[in-house]
């Protein structure tokens, strides 16, 4: 996937001007925010559960090597295989090799952000294998050759009219006079089209919400049931997941599940929570003949012990972006790579470099709402600030901004000089803008006055007036 | 300020925005503190809380400013600011910023314990239950993000506003949403900031209030600037102006008649 994060500002401005996108983004508030609030309010112990979920992940990260080994052993005992990939390239190659071994021409896929992260579809296509996304949102954006714009609602940037157009374009074998005006009719059509594909695929690839060390189980949560068909029908099931998905026990999983879907969609549980342990056993009525788990690092182990370790607690619920004022106006594509919103602003720089993703941790008003709704209590603003520190140290921020900041700091560290300078500024601006009480335009304040007036100072500084009042 | 007043001595952290843009916010704060039996002092050696540096990744300058503020204010019983954002910086972030500085870590922690945002100080520390002020009209209250989420201030301003004679409070929708100011954010990403504040001014307009109040001048300059640009008649004031009964001066962004 092309990285457009360096053009974040342009992307954002374009998104803000896109009326269709803005209409689609309204759902983040009306849908996600209100539903989450309802679910959370109905569970008085929600905050205690968040703390417990945080502690489980912190404990796991502190002993990740042990839990990874235990997990691997359990998967082998159940007849599955575990493959480790240090880089995206290694993961792609491993998956391609398994697909080739299985003689695959068609691969069905459950929704996986890690597959997006490693560019799996492009790689499979380039090697003559057809990947078919089976999550409705992913299916829609695959038809459009787009990237997901949200980690749990990949097509949230689209309206139902957009989807109708895509289906008419793609499903040319269906009668042109059919009624696709309702979301339900769109869903039925996608379901019918995908049913055929499920039967064709030789390999099914899913992500994982959890990898359970205690049992060697991979867990996915879905609402469409597509994940089950993806992993049950083909003869080979590949699970693609990153190292931090390891969770010690089933008890721990059930604990985290209680905060996951409430935070994501406001559901108590998703419609499907699927536990898979190894390939089909002799007595099983169905299931794959082979079960592979590809565990990807891609820079994550380097986050352990760094100021970004807490990010590895993330369970990808999307609550941070659903409540982010910036995400709500720019949408997911503006962020320019796989992970949008506050979690993307922290994670993306570790994965593609802060030189490319530098805008992301800067484009935050630090309103803190992401942290306040995060089920894993990840201090997202604090970590964005750490990225800004790294950028500052590496002189990556724009020169004019650094110069301005340096000048301001020079005065701010010299109170006497500062008092003198602010007196002059207050007087000058007070005189200039006093008649109207505000400025429509002002030199060097274009960033402010492009969109809003600048209220004029009253004319004297408080310090000056206070000193006058104190004078005997 | 009568010498015989017995009560705690409060160091007023004026905030750079009140100092430069709106001294009347400073004087309203002084009045409220004095009405709550506090002795108010205003150290001259104050400039800004350091957030522009801190939030731009410039830790060194942020630390230098933090040490300067602590040295100037640590002698007072309390440190009070008419801003949730600056109070949050002093109270929550200074200890984090200086945690690794042996000479300052403890001083920063002790100092942080004395810092309060003005309205929460009046209600939570001084036990103020009502104010002797009048304001005719419908107001809506904007929660600044740092007041709300960093300092947990939500009820205190509303409680005092309800005791202002003639005032009616009409809540706007989505009170937890940011106004898009964000300090340097609003000039670094003006288009995004604008798209956010447009939602806020729409919510304000929908509330039916004639005046929007808030506890942070950053938010207020942003909101007032947008309302004025949109030609709105809604006025913007710092909440202390109303609580202190000092609403004679023009509202933010307006000229004297």
Give the beta-strand count of chain B.
8
Helix-strand string of chain B: EHHEHHEHHEHEHHEHHEHEH
Number of strands of chain A: 12
Sheet-strand content of chain A, in percent, reads 5-15%
* Structural class label of chain B: alpha/beta
Give the termini distance of chain A in whole angstroms.
71 Å
Number of helices of chain A: 23
Structural class of chain A: alpha/beta
End-to-end Cα distance of chain B, whole Å, is 31 Å
- What integer is the average pLDDT of chain A? 95
Largest sheet of chain B: 4 strands, parallel
Helical content of chain A, roughly? Answer: 40-55%
Strands of the biggest beta sheet of chain A: in what spatial order?
Answer: 1-10-7-4-2-3
Identify the biggest protein-protein contact and residues per side: A-B, 69 and 70 residues
- The low-confidence runs of chain B, each spanning 5 or more residues with pLDDT under 50, are none
**Number of helical stretches of at least 4 residues of chain B:** 13
Quaternary structure state of the chains depicted? heterodimer
- The radius of gyration of chain B is 18 Å
What is the overall pLDDT average of chain B? 96
Stretches of chain A where pLDDT falls below 50 for ≥5 residues? none
Walk me through what this model shows:
- The complex is a heterodimer of chains A (472) and B (257).
- In chain A, 52% of the residues lie in helices and 11% in strands.
- The radius of gyration of chain A is 26 Å and the shape is globular.
- By secondary structure, chain A is of the alpha/beta class.
- Chain A has 23 helices and 12 strands.
- Chain A has helices spanning 8-16, 19-41, 46-62, 64-77, 88-101, 113-118, 120-126, 136-143, 160-170, 183-200, 226-232, 250-264, 319-322, 325-330, 341-352, 354-357, 359-362, 369-373, 380-393, 399-412, 415-433, 446-449, 462-470; strands spanning 81-85, 106-109, 130-133, 203-206, 210-212, 217-222, 236-242, 246-247, 272-276, 290-296, 438-439, 454-455.
- In chain A, a hairpin with a 4-residue loop joins β5 and β6 (217-222).
- Chain A starts with 7 loop residues before the first helix and ends with a helix.
- In chain A, strands 1-10-7-4-2-3 form a 6-stranded parallel β-sheet, with helices on both faces. Chain A has a 4-stranded mixed β-sheet with strand order 8-5-6-9.
- Chain B starts with 8 loop residues before the first strand and ends in a 14-residue tail after the last helix.
- In chain B, β7, α12 and β8 form a beta-alpha-beta unit.
- Chain B has helices at residues 16-20, 23-35, 51-54, 59-73, 84-97, 105-112, 118-125, 145-150, 155-161, 185-188, 190-207, 217-229, 239-243; strands at 9-12, 39-41, 78-81, 115-117, 134-142, 165-169, 211-214, 235-238.
- By secondary structure, chain B is α/β, with parallel strands linked by helices.
- A 4-stranded parallel β-sheet of chain B has the order 2-1-3-4, sandwiched between helices. Chain B has a 4-stranded parallel β-sheet with strand order 6-5-7-8, with helices on both faces.
- Chains A and B meet through α1, α14, α18, α19 and α20 of A and α1, α2, α3, α4 and α8 of B.
């Amino acid at each position: 996937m092309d990285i457009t994060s360096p053009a974040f500002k342009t992307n954002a401005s374009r998104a803000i001007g896109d009326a269709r996108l803005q209409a689609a983004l309204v759902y983040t508030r009306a849908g996600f925010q209100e539903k989450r609030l309802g679910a959370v309010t109905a569970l008085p112990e929600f905050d205690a559960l968040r703390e417990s979920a945080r502690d489980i992940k912190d404990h796991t990260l502190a002993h990740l090597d042990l839990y990874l080994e235990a997990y691997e052993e359990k998967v082998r005992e159940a007849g599955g295989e575990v493959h480790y990939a240090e880089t995206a390239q290694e993961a792609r190659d491993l998956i391609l090799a398994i697909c080739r071994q299985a003689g695959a021409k068609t691969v069905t896929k459950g929704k996986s952000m890690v597959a997006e992260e490693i560019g799996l579809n492009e790689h499979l296509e380039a090697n003559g294998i057809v990947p078919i996304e089976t999550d409705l949102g992913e299916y829609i954006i695959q038809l459009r050759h787009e990237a997901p714009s949200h980690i749990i609602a990949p097509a949230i940037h689209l309206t139902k009219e957009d989807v109708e157009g895509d289906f008419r374009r793609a499903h040319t074998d269906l009668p042109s006079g059919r009624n696709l005006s309702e979301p339900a009719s769109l869903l039925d059509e996608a379901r019918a089209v995908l049913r055929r594909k499920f039967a064709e695929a030789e390999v099914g690839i899913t992500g994982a919400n959890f990898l359970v060390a205690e049992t060697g189980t991979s867990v996915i949560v879905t609402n469409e049931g597509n994940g089950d068909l993806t992993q049950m029908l083909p003869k080979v099931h590949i699970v693609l997941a990153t190292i931090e998905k390891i969770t010690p026990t089933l008890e721990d999983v059930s604990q985290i599940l209680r905060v996951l879907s409430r935070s994501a969609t406001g559901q108590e549980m998703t419609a499907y929570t699927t536990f898979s342990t190894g390939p089909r056993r002799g007595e099983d009525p169905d299931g794959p003949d082979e079960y592979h788990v590809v565990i990807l690092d891609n820079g994550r182990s380097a986050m352990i012990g760094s100021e970004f370790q807490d990010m590895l607690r993330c369970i990808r619920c999307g609550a941070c972006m659903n409540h982010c004022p910036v995400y709500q106006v720019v949408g997911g594509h503006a962020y320019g790579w796989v992970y949008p919103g506050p979690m993307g602003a922290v994670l993306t720089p570790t994965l593609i470099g802060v030189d490319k993703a530098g805008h992301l941790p800067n484009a935050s008003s630090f309103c803190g709402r992401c942290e306040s709704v995060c089920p894993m209590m990840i201090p997202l603003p604090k970590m964005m600030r750490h990225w800004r520190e790294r950028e500052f140290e590496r002189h990556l921020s724009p020169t004019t901004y650094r110069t301005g900041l340096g000048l301001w700091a020079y005065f701010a560290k010299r109170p006497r000089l500062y008092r003198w300078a602010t007196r002059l500024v207050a007087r000058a601006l007070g005189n200039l803008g006093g008649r109207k009480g505000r400025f429509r335009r002002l030199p060097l304040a274009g960033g402010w006055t492009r969109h809003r007036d600048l209220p004029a100072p009253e004319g004297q500084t408080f310090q000056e007036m206070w000193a006058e009042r104190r004078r005997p | 300020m009568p010498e015989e007043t017995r009560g705690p001595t409060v160091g007023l952290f004026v905030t750079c925005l009140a100092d430069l843009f709106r001294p009347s916010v400073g004087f309203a704060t002084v009045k409220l503190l004095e009405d709550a039996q506090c002795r108010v002092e205003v150290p001259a050696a104050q400039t800004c809380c350091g957030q522009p540096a801190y939030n731009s990744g410039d830790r060194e300058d942020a630390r230098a400013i933090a040490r300067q503020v602590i040295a100037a204010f640590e002698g007072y019983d309390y440190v009070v600011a008419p801003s949730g954002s600056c109070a949050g910086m002093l109270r929550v972030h200074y200890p984090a910023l200086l945690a690794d500085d042996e000479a300052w870590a403890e001083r920063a922690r002790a100092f942080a314990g004395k810092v309060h945002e003005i309205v929460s100080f009046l209600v939570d520390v001084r036990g103020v239950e009502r104010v002797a002020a009048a304001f005719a009209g419908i107001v809506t209250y904007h929660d600044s993000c740092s007041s709300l989420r960093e300092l947990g201030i939500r009820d205190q301003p509303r409680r005092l506003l309800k005791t202002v004679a003639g005032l009616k409070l009409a809540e706007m929708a989505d009170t937890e949403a940011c106004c898009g100011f964000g300090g340097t954010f609003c000039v670094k990403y003006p288009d995004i900031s604008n798209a956010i504040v447009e939602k806020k001014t729409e919510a304000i307009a929908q509330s039916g209030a004639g005046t929007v109040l808030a506890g942070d001048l950053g938010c207020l300059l942003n909101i007032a600037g947008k309302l004025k640009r949109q030609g709105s008649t809604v006025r913007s004031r710092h909440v202390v102006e109303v609580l202190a009964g000092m609403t004679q001066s023009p509202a933010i962004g307006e000229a004297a008649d």
